[in-house]
Design a protein that fits this description.
With about 210 residues, the chain is of the alpha+beta class. It has one domain: Pnp Oxidase, Chain A (Roll), CATH 2.30.110. The chain is built from five helices and nine strands. Strands 1, 2, 3, 4, 5, 6, 7, 8 and 9 form a nine-stranded antiparallel beta sheet that branches. A hairpin with a 5-residue loop joins β8 and β9. It is globular. It starts with about 25 loop residues before the first helix and ends with a strand. The structure holds flavin mononucleotide. Flavin mononucleotide binds next to β2, β4 and α2.
């Protein structure tokens, strides 16, 4: 049995120093995101989205970041999913990126807002056919009959053969309006570099180094 207590990657000693940080955390994120892309990390846009369920219990899952903009980060999903039920009830969420090859993580907290139908449609039409077909399968109660799911997909494949696949009403995007960013750079001496940005009064970002 592997001793997971000793399972740890030694960090390369990359530093994150205050003088190198940009004023705006979205700009800082873009620099790190580009570094992750350049490092050819698999799915650098994969992020863990944590929501709070109706009983107050947190739940996490991975989604793909699809747009990085000044006013927030966008992902797309089903509005009839469990996560959407959580978000309807409590739109405050956390997003987490771990780029392990760079010994970096970024954590973001904020509030989610639905994207406009037009924006969701534009993104939907850019997705591959398999995703668009699967998205059109209506909500199914659990426990799921997988064979029924496959049959529905096959039916949709025939129905939309050679025609446009419209975005279903139950599909769309969410954009986070962030109030906090944290940038973490792992160090070999365990005194990791951590900086948080807080958007206290919605116009300026306050930045500080925090404990490793
Ligand atoms: C790498 C990866 C990327 C994913 N991207 C998405 C995504 O962009 N949107 C989405 O709805 N689900 C995505 N999923 C599936 C979700 O993790 C999750 O299983 C699904 O959305 C159902 O979650 P829920 O029941 O909590 O709503 C992805 C999973 C993985 C592993």
């Amino acid at each position: 049995m592997i001793d997971i207590g000793q399972l740890r990657k030694e960090f390369q000693d990359e530093r994150l120093i205050e003088e190198d940080l940009l004023e705006d955390p979205y700009d800082q994120f873009e620099i790190w995101f580009n570094d992750a892309c350049k490092a050819q990390i698999a799915s650098p846009n994969a992020m863990v989205l944590s929501t709070i369920d109706l009983t107050g219990m947190p739940r996490s899952r991975t989604v793909l970041l699809r747009k990085i903009e000044r006013n927030g980060f966008t992902f797309f999903t089903r509005y009839d999913s469990e996560k959407a039920i959580h978000i309807d009830n409590n739109p405050k969420v956390s997003l987490h990126f771990h780029w392990k090859e760079l010994n970096r993580e970024v954590t973001i907290s904020g509030t989610l807002f639905k994207t406009s139908v037009g924006e969701s449609r534009t993104f939907f039409s850019s997705c591959n056919r398999k995703l668009r077909l699967a998205a059109r399968i209506p909500y199914m109660e659990s426990p799921i009959d997988y064979q029924k799911l496959v049959e529905k997909l096959e039916g949709l494949d025939i129905q939309y053969d050679g025609t446009q696949i419209p975005m279903p009403d139950w599909w769309g995007g969410y954009r986070i309006e962030a109030i906090r960013f944290e940038f973490w750079q792992g160090r070999s001496n365990y005194l990791h570099d951590r900086f948080e940005y807080c958007n206290c009064d919605s116009s300026t970002w306050k930045r500080q180094r925090i404990a490793p």
